[in-house]
Write a structure and sequence with these properties.
Helices cover 74% and strands 0% of the residues.
């Protein structure tokens, strides 16, 4: 969901309005800027009572309601502003945002599209259009719209992040890495961007680069579970088993029912010959997910190495029944004479 970041209409000189409406409107802006939201609403309301055609007062009251998360009231005010000024891309964008927060995505998309039509240089309308298209899984069209936003405003970090997400979901990982990097140049403390850039690097087999990104994400926010888990995975690939165990353990500490963290911690423990520790982790994974094929397969391998051939074969058969095709070869080799 987008953050609320709208442009307030400016102060109005006396020559355009009656003195009383002008004073109330300008007083509303002053209170609004001080975050005295109820006072601002009262002043904007009084201003539009005196002059119902004062579009900027309707607009600014809508901004206050949007800030207060009173989205239907915000939509009403932005609609009034649009009726009075149909060519206002900012009002169209703002109404789209209020509709998006109400999960009326198609209506929001209509407003964002209209915003681009009345003002082809309104960057946030292109951004809004792109993010809704991405939400609806039209990522190619989303990228086209977001690139137009960036062409207008290259320092729009949310647009760089959004286009990166669409590139990543389409499998264009090199492009996504470039986009995340541009976003991070603008917002260096965006931990989630580091996590997602790390995902792309991991897919491209830049394992050390992925590890660096997950580490940076955790320096910025030590509570990101997926960063611990993903760093554990790449450290496992790098043969850093003890460090990967620490990462999986931290992920489990933060999310005790994270099945795959137990499975992967078991793999790392097995790799350092802590067979009993691995067995304990696979047992817990199976408790959490009784149809986890990989947990059964790996527990079977562990039991076989601990000398429990019968238990190993039972687990491999279960793994095979849950779709782990590699279990078939082990069953054929070790389990012909075992039930």
């Amino acid at each position: 969901m987008k953050t609320i970041s709208l442009i307030l209409a400016l102060l109005l000189p006396v020559m355009f309005l009656g003195q009383s409406a002008e004073q109330l409107y300008n007083s509303g802006i002053e209170k609004h800027s001080k975050k005295e939201y109820q006072g601002a609403i009262a002043d904007y309301t009084s201003a539009v009572r005196i002059d119902p055609k004062l579009a900027v007062a309707w607009f600014n009251r809508g901004v206050v309601y949007l800030t207060l998360e009173e989205f239907s009231k915000a939509e009403y005010d932005f609609t009034k502003a649009i009726e009075l000024n149909p060519e206002s891309a900012e009002a169209l964008y703002s109404r789209g945002l209020s509709r998006e927060y109400q999960e009326r995505f198609r209506d929001a998309l209509d407003d964002y599209i209209r915003g681009t039509q009345v003002d082809s240089l309104h960057a946030r309308s292109w951004y809004g259009k792109g993010t809704i298209l991405a939400m609806l899984n039209f990522h190619e069209q989303a990228i086209e719209s977001l690139k137009k936003c960036i062409a207008i405003d290259p320092k729009f970090p949310d647009a760089w992040y959004a286009v990166a997400e669409s590139h990543r979901k389409l499998g264009f990982n090199y492009e996504a890495i470039y986009d995340y990097t541009r976003e991070l140049e603008l917002i260096p403390d965006d931990a989630i961007a580091y996590v997602n850039r790390g995902l792309c690097k991991s897919v491209l087999n830049d394992i050390r680069g992925a590890e660096e990104d997950y580490t940076k994400a955790l320096e910025l926010d030590s509570e990101i579970i997926i960063a611990y888990y993903n760093r554990g995975v790449v450290r496992q690939k790098l043969g850093k088993y003890s460090e990967s165990i620490e990462d999986f353990s931290k992920a489990i500490e933060l999310r005790p029912n994270m099945t795959q963290a137990y499975v992967n911690r078991g793999i790392s423990k097995y790799s350092i010959k802590d067979l009993n520790g691995a067995l304990s982790d696979y047992n817990r994974a199976i408790e959490l997910d009784p149809s986890n094929a990989l947990a059964f397969f790996n527990r079977g391998v562990t039991l076989n190495n601990l000398g429990d051939k019968s238990g190993a074969c039972r687990d491999w058969r279960r793994a095979y029944s849950y779709g782990e095709s590699e279990a078939e070869a082990l069953i054929s080799e070790f389990c012909k004479n075992l039930k």
